[in-house]
Amino acid sequence: MKEIELLAPAGSPEALDAAINEGADAVYLGLKNFNARLRTSNFAYSQFEGAVKNLHRMGKKIYVTVNTVFEQREADRMYQFLKYLAVIGPDGIIVQDFGVSRMVRQHFPTLKLHASTQMNVSSSRGANVLSRQGFSRVVLSRELTLEEIRTIRERTTMELEIFVHGALCVSESGLCLFSSYLGGKSANRGMCTQACRRLYRVNDESGYYFSPADLQLIDQVPALADMGIASLKIEGRMKSAEYVGTVVSAYRHILDNLDGNREQALAEAKAILKHDFARPKTSFYMEAEGPAAWLDPNQAGGTGIPLGKILKVRGAESERRGMLSKTSITIETGDSIRLHKRDDSDRQSHKISSVETTDEGVWISIPDNFDVGDSVYIIQTRAMTKRYPAVLPKDLGPYRKMPGHETAPALQLPKPQKQDRDLFPEGIYAAVSRIEDLYVLQSVKPVRAMLSYTRAAARAILDRREALPFSKNELIFVLDPYYPESIDSILSEEIPQLLALGYRQFVVNNLAHLSLFRGTEARLIAGPYLYTFNSWSFAQIHEQGLLYKVSPLENNRQNLERTVSEEWRPFTFVTLFAYPALFRIRADLSSMYQFQYFSDGKDEKFRLLSSSEGSLVVPEQPFSIIDKETFLKEAGFSRFILDFSGPPLKKVDYKDVMAALKGGKSLPNTTRFNWKDGFYTNP
After folding, report:
1. Which domain holds residue 162?
2. What Pfam families does UniProt report for this protein, alphabetically (predicted)?
3. pLDDT tens column, 547-591
4. Are strands 639-643 and 572-578 parallel, antiparallel or unpaired?
5. What is the CATH number of the domain that holds 228?
6. What is d(CA 283, CA 165) in angstroms, rounded to the nearest whole number?
7. Are residue 265 and residue 147 in the same domain, yes or no?
8. Residue 123 contacts residue 516 (beta carbons within 8 Å)
9. I want to staple 229 with a disulfide (CB 3.0 to 4.6 A). Which of 96, 157, 224, 670 is the partner?
């Protein structure tokens, strides 16, 4: 059996020490920018350089996370950063943005490319596309079943990395827009505010409806090892060193005993994991158990073992104390706890400085702003704390390399060809999710209709051969951005059938879609989920033969204009109206939740749409910049999308939007999303 890599998170020097000393073969870490965990401490340049040298001396590997998208204004900084990494020499970089991969291939080919789970690769077809683009490893999305992973392993030579332990996202990997919608703190920029962990309200009841349990695949390690997975990855760059050490030691134990008594080793590893003080555990989609196995609306979104609610308080500031009921868990000075406000408005970690046991209960120190009714969880005990030999050199003085101040080389796209300008006409395109909604569009006909290619649409078109209210030349199919291995055999049969029937226009939203159309006469548009936030990613997508592109929904006006040169603006679609899919969830949640409408602590309202094909969460308040159409035309853009996909389309709503568009008026009760203010940046 080929040796399998145990890959651990290093969110701090202390976590690095714990990971290596407990037996990790490799670590992954981020520096101060361009990584998906900007809220953790991360590493200074001198620390990183010292870590690379010492880890390589120890025979260990180190990977750097460069797994966020970058904007055009940041191209020089990204170039400088990649040049610095090429000099230092980590064993690979984990990337999301196609612009990063293009920059690496052209200028820093010594850097090995690993595709982040944020790239949303869930199929062998997607992995093979990346292999042809110079990637050596892909981190598969977390939403796959064991059988899907097995099939992917059989159909690609790419190294596969699998998350086996840690926190989960309820949304499909790389497709969550919720945090970004709430204030520009995008998960694609490392600023996720964990909207899935929040308390939501349905009528008079509240619950953590979208907060999943933590992943634990210790039972599946033997199967993953047997099928030839290259690396088992532990999530947790924001977790403590004690947590990292505990989890690494458990997975190290099972890996070291795969050739021995597996059953006994598994039991011993599970016993170690009882002390990770995290959320309840799940195998997620791995065993296809359904959402009830990983969603519990009564389970608070934070980590730790519940100690109960604060019953009484006394004192203030540093003398603030809260009383808890006595439990079987002994609380000691030096233990770490996590406190949650009862209205979910605040969460804080706190190291206990005082413990007093009385007949009434246990009084402990708490932060000054917590009160009666707030919940307390223990996340680490003093007894767990271990001191490990340091990995970093004691003297970091010799490690002085830093990114320079170079300017990124200019990119030159080929000139647009005259014959390509008319593949898609100028004007308004309207997108819907259901065939019946196409009839609504006939009341004010757009130049083209876009229809989500769902199983229902496939049955109507391919099985029943239903006549549609738009001609084949007027209809564009929008392919779903999530492309699991199980859908590959279906789409690889259906796409040729659609082409044979004369349907030739498609929006592709996943890497895997590209090879479905190789050698065909299909007319393709790169969808918003291919994330062309900079000219480098724009050029990389262009190189795949995708001349037309839809600007990402998270984009802003300034970045759009900086990214797209004037000659290519007629080839770029801009969405003027949409109900953005904030969560895209693979599971059908209708078996658990009968509600559709819910709200958050600020009384913002959202809608849950579930079907056998999965679930979406959309805002009740849509995104709209329809009053900016004239400005965009003056800037050179000429193709626009009104995206009504998601909820069923009502004729009155459609006519209202079209009337406002015609009159150049802004729509009431809408949001600009990031159009005006852009992504959130730290002050």
Report:
1. 5-168+213-277
2. Peptidase_U32 (PF01136)
3. 999 999 999 999 999 999 999 999 999 999 999 999 999 999 999
4. parallel
5. 3.20.20.70
6. 9
7. yes
8. no
9. 224
